[in-house]
């Protein structure tokens, strides 16, 4: 994978997000309470709501429009809702957030 340095981990608040421009639209970077970082298209699969503005809890984000819960590690909506926000490989190394933008990771 072609990893790109995006920002310092500290640039994303714990239980917060940051939006970057991706090749096919905005990408939301999410930071959990455990300092894990996940990246999803900033678009809820339900009505296109901005996931970056949702509440993060555990490894999920709640869409601010209709409270759909999306798994950060897969992009899948939590049942009974059905849908998927495309995810992008992300990791933290030496305090830096790295993202692989070229390879879109499909939903499981």
List the helices and strands and how they pair.
Layout: E1 3-8, E2 16-22, E3 25-31, E4 37-41, E5 55-57, E6 60-62, E7 69-71, E8 87-88, E9 90-93, E10 96-100
Antiparallel strand pairs: 1-10, 2-3, 3-4, 4-8, 5-6, 6-7, 9-10
Structure commentary:
The chain has a single domain (3-100), classed as Rieske Iron-sulfur Protein. 0% of the residues lie in helices and 42% in strands. It is built from no helices and ten strands. The protein has strands at 3-8, 16-22, 25-31, 37-41, 55-57, 60-62, 69-71, 87-88, 90-93, 96-100. β2 and β3 (25-31) form a beta hairpin. The chain is globular. It starts with a strand and ends in an 8-residue tail after the last strand. The relative contact order is 0.25.
State mean pLDDT (0 to 100 scale): 93
Distance between the termini: 19 Å
Strand content: 35-45%
Uncertain segments are: none
Strand order of the largest sheet: 2-3-4-8
**Main β-sheet: number of strands, strand sense, barrel status?**
4 strands, antiparallel
CATH topology heading? Rieske Iron-sulfur Protein
Class from secondary-structure proportions: mainly beta
Radius of gyration: 13 Å
Count of individual helical segments? 0
User: What is the percent of helical residues?
Assistant: under 10%
CATH superfamily: Rieske [2Fe-2S] iron-sulphur domain
By CATH reckoning, the class would read Mainly Beta
Q: Tell me how many strands there are.
A: 10
Please identify, by name, the CATH architecture.
3-layer Sandwich
Number of domains: 1
Overall 3D shape: globular
In N-to-C order, the SSE pattern is EEEEEEEEEE
């Amino acid at each position: 994978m072609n990893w790109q340095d995006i920002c310092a981990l500290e640039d994303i608040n714990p239980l917060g997000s940051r939006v970057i421009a991706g090749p096919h639209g905005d990408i939301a970077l999410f930071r959990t309470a455990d300092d894990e970082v996940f990246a999803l298209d900033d678009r809820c699969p339900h009505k296109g709501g901005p996931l970056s503005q949702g509440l993060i809890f555990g490894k999920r984000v709640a869409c601010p429009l209709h409270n759909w819960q999306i798994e950060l590690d897969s992009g899948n909506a939590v049942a009974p809702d059905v849908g998927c926000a495309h995810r992008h490989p992300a990791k933290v190394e030496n305090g830096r957030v790295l993202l692989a933008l070229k390879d879109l990771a499909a939903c499981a």
